[in-house]
Design brief:
Layout lengths: L1 H39 L1
């Protein structure tokens, strides 16, 4: 029972960590693509 709980919390943290790294990879690209458009407007 404890092992299952530990596995769930571990997978939960892995999902959060992967989503944060995904945002870190995607966000700079969004900023780079947004800035030139704002300058043109």
């Amino acid at each position: 029972m404890n092992n299952l709980y530990a596995l769930q919390t571990l997978s939960f943290f892995v999902v959060i960590f992967s989503s944060y790294t995904f945002i870190d990879i995607i966000e700079p690209q969004k900023i780079l693509t947004k800035e030139p458009k704002e300058e043109c407007l």
